[in-house]
Amino acid sequence: MPQRQEKYSRLFTSSLILTSPGIAVLFLLVILHLIVWQAALGAGVIILLGTGYILSSHYSHVEKLKEYITALRQLKGKDPLPGIPSAAGSFLYPELNLSLSRMAQERQQYRRQLEAVTEGNEAILSSLPDPLIMLGKKRQIIRGNPAAQTIFGNNITGRELSTILRNPSILNAVDTVENSNEDISRFVEFKIHGRVERYMLARIARMSEQTWDGTRVIISLHDQTAAKKVDQMRGDFIANASHELKTPLASLMGFIETLKGPAKDDPEAQQRFLNIMQDQSERMSHLVSDLLSLSRIELLEHTPPTGVTDLNIIITKITEGLHTQIQNKQITIRKDLSPDLQDSIPVLGDAESLTQLFQNLLENAIKYGHKGTTVTIRCKAYGPGSQGMRRLGRPSVAIAIIDQGDGIPREHIPRLTERFYRVDAARSRELGGTGLGLAIVKHIVNRHRGVLTIDSEVGRGSTFTVYLPKAAVSEMNLPAWESSNLA
């Protein structure tokens, strides 16, 4: 009702204004006695009504055009244009419809082009493997692409840069670039600390003009971890191989020299020496194999696996492969699985790496467990609010390998996962150990973003517990060999 009153009031006022010159002329003619006042009044009423009719039609047309423009403003790029209102009854400017229609078509076409360009740019940003962070004023994060969110989290928008990158060199470089009057860029190398260290190269560049979303500075990060790891592993491999291979090589050279000299005609000594040489050769072969395996694992440590696998199948396959060692030491393997893990133990991980991890742990449990004892494999799932949830920040599965051996003195436990660290070097070599098994285990656990805990009591045995991220059974994507085992 108020809108209708306002409409009539506007119509009356407009009609009165437009007819005022004509009414004034009629009033003048009455004063000059050229026409009688009755005729002047009738003519004035006719002029007022005619003008009101024309304006009413025009205002109705303008109101329709207003609604049409409002509908245009609410359109999205792919929406169809609304139908243009009819120009019937518009006496003043019938061409206005056509002009607005052309303008709407051009505007819609331009908007579609802009949205296509924007979608293309977003697709490019999303597909970039390198993290990209867009900054506004005072180092405020406008947004980051998916690669950046993978490293720094999904909730980085609106935060200050120093809350995710505390490196002073980067912050100083950002301030320098932002406050510069020229389009300059800076390069900064830095390290992201954490369970798995990342080596990054940051390029900080200033936009020539501020973008529509407020971006002034762009930080692009290039992961150099793999290259750094390769350089580091090359040096470590040479150092470790030269150190650990020195003793067996010296033994082989000594025995060869003895066989060529004093023992040349002694068949009994030859047989004994050849057996020792075979043992030393096998030890070197295992050592080189473990070193290469550790190098491959370290190279991939910064890229967590995304597949899902079933630990139940992996552990069953490993215990079947260790049947001979189990029989020789009269070991009993006991599985202690929580009720919800009886059928499967789904975790986020790489089947090949997890096989190597639990192969090492089970082999150690059998090697160092006393003859005729039990090795227990205990599995338990942890949900929200539990210990495992607090360790990983998400639902997890804990797999504990428990042996009944001599145990490990507490002062040695923190160093067990170091390369070539042995509690009893002589016994380790006698049992065929290379000193790299637990180092391999540690790096595989790190790659899977899990946690390894070691608990031991001298005279009672040791417990090695691995916490891994749990996956839903519906997410299972088993390799071919696992699928065949399920069948």
Automatic annotation (TrEMBL):
Start and end residues of each Histidine kinase domain: 240-472
Organism domain of life: Bacteria
Transmembrane segments: 12-31, 37-56
Enzyme class: transferase
Pfam families reported for this sequence: HATPase_c, HisKA
Catalytic activity: ATP + protein L-histidine = ADP + protein N-phospho-L-histidine
CDD domains per UniProt: HisKA
Keywords: ATP-binding, Kinase, Membrane, Nucleotide-binding, Phosphoprotein, Transferase, Transmembrane, Transmembrane helix, Two-component regulatory system
EC number annotated for this UniProt entry: 2.7.13.3
InterPro entries (UniProt xref): BphY/WalK/GraS-like, HATPase_C_sf, HATPase_dom, His_kinase_dom, HisK_dim/P_dom, HisK_dim/P_sf, PAS-like_dom_sf, Sig_transdc_His_kin-like_C
Molecular function (Gene Ontology), one example: ATP binding
Listed name of the protein: histidine kinase
Source species of the chain: Kiloniella laminariae
Lineage: Bacteria, Pseudomonadati, Pseudomonadota, Alphaproteobacteria, Rhodospirillales
